[in-house]
Amino acid sequence: MKVHSGVMSRTNVDIDDELVAAAPRMYRLDSKRSAVDLALRRLVGEPLSRDEALALQGSGFDFTNDEIESFSDADIKLADES
């Protein structure tokens, strides 16, 4: 069943509800579809445009590269548990 004109198809997937709920808040998105679309584009798709990158400014990621590199596995595990 084709839903869109050749560029998209409908796919049903099981996704972590907490992650799906967090994404719109973190990135100011308006739907689950937008969250999945952003995730796939950032993972394997086209690079963000300048305007898209600027729109993400202030979306909740507040670490410098040095801070990220200093994280230990224990820090990451604690963050996953919260």
TrEMBL record:
Q: Which domain of life is it from?
A: Bacteria
Q: Name one Pfam family in it.
A: VapB_antitoxin
Return the protein name. Answer: Antitoxin VapB15
Gene source species = Mycobacterium riyadhense
